Amino acid sequence: MEAAGPLCLAAAALLAWGFLRVWDSRERTKSQEQAGVLGDGSRTLLVIAHPDDEAMFFAPTVLGLARLGHRLSLLCFSAGNFYNQGEIRKKELLQSCDVLGIPPSSIMIIDNRDFPDDPSVQWDTERVASILLQHIEMNSINLVVTFDEGGVSGHSNHIALYAAMRTLHSEGRLPKGCSVLTLQSVNVLRKYISLLDLPFTLLRRQDVLFVLTSKEVAQAKRAMSCHHSQLLWFRRLYVLFSRYMRINSLYFL
Description:
GO cellular component, one term: endoplasmic reticulum membrane
GO molecular function, one term: N-acetylglucosaminylphosphatidylinositol deacetylase activity
Number of helices: 10
CATH architecture: 3-Layer(aba) Sandwich
Low-confidence stretches: 25-29
Structural class: alpha/beta
Keywords: Endoplasmic reticulum, GPI-anchor biosynthesis, Hydrolase, Membrane, Transmembrane, Transmembrane helix
Shape: globular
Pfam families: PIG-L
Strand content: 5-15%
Pathway: Glycolipid biosynthesis; glycosylphosphatidylinositol-anchor biosynthesis
Strand order of the largest sheet: 3-2-1-4-5-7-6
CATH class: Alpha Beta
């Protein structure tokens, strides 16, 4: 009986490994299919709330879109100054993006008291939407990627970005041909079982799915490691166990 637990874990890990091998064998075909859905060579904007969101939550999407030939840019709505570390975190974001392949010229960080890094503050939806629309139009963006209504972690700043994009989309204010992809939030159990979540993910519908190869997982971890100021013990565990360091499932608005 004592051996049952380790055996079950080993069986689950083997099952996930098997699914991943199947995924790897289909990767080129799937990438071609998703390129048709997403548009090869699209100008894509990743919209995040804080430095480290790009690595902690969106690394599979960033690396997956790069595979498809997308030209990626990033808009970060705060400097992450909750603990007065804003200047440090700006530099960490640039370093992380360099690892992920986003050049400094394609990164904009908003450091404005209207958008504090604070889960207790509700960002003004129309103000966020206005800045988003201006950035989209100025840069001829045709795909926006951001959080869904759950914000992955439930952080109000994440959810504010979704609310603003939802407003622009529902009111028909986005430029013609501009699509919006949102990152699916999952329950706590699925969030922290890493690749063991892959079978459950494959059984569910999503518009776009990115799964990192082992080489890309190492790249994602290197990007996250650039955020030295944020690597407290629980975030180190997050890097080890979170599905978002390996898997992203996304839906179009």
